[in-house]
Amino acid sequence: MSLTVYLAGQIHDDWRGRLIEQASERGVDVNFVCPQDDHPLSDAIGVNVLGEESKARWKDELASQFNNLRTRVLMQKSDVVVAQFGEEYRQWNAAMDAGIAIALDKPLILVRDPKLHHALKEISQRAQVTVDHPDQVLDALEYILK
């Protein structure tokens, strides 16, 4: 058995790459999918498809439409969603993705530093599992596959 896992949340560092590499090293049979992590492409996709906008707000609105489409399609095809929260960046994308996973009734693994427990307690209660670091995500995925 193999799993498709959507890696939700911010795209500003390489947490996904590290997790994917660790999964490969451990031999975990998982196909990872994720938001568009080419940040300039993600920000420009709306105007790339529909044409230039003179105001930044409308450029953002158009990009959001295409990014939301991508998120929904890939999440619906996923067996599990992992939402990683960190402190360095505002975590709107992670919160939105976790909410979408919950609304789609997708199993959710929440990754957050214990210092963020209080801020994320409601999402944590809706997730199937809350872990403190990404290595524990791989432990959970291995357990599913055993």
Topology:
Blueprint: E1 3-9, H1 15-26, E2 30-33, H2 39-50, H3 56-76, E3 80-84, H4 92-103, E4 108-111, H5 121-126, E5 129-131, H6 134-145
Parallel strand pairs: 1-2, 1-3, 3-4, 4-5
Characterization of this structure:
The chain is α/β, with parallel strands linked by helices. It has two domains: 33-77, no CATH class; 80-140. 51% of the residues lie in helices and 16% in strands. It has six helices and five strands; from the N terminus they run βαβααβαβαβα. It has helices at 15-26, 39-50, 56-76, 92-103, 121-126, 134-145, and strands at residues 3-9, 30-33, 80-84, 108-111, 129-131. A five-stranded parallel β-sheet has the order 2-1-3-4-5. Helix 2 (39-50) packs across helix 3 (56-76). The longest helix has 21 residues, at 56-76. The chain is globular and about 50 Å long. The termini are close together.
Summarize this structure as a short list of keywords or feature phrases:
five-stranded parallel sheet; 2 domains; 146 residues; alpha/beta
Q: Counting H and I runs of at least 4 residues, what is the number of helices?
A: 6
- The 3D shape can be described as globular
- Uncertain residue ranges: none
Major sheet attributes: 5 strands, parallel
Rounded mean pLDDT score: 93
What fraction, in percent, of the residue positions are helical? 40-55%
Could you give the distance between the termini? 9 Å
Total discrete domains? 2
With strands numbered from the N-terminus, the spatial order across the biggest sheet is 2-1-3-4-5
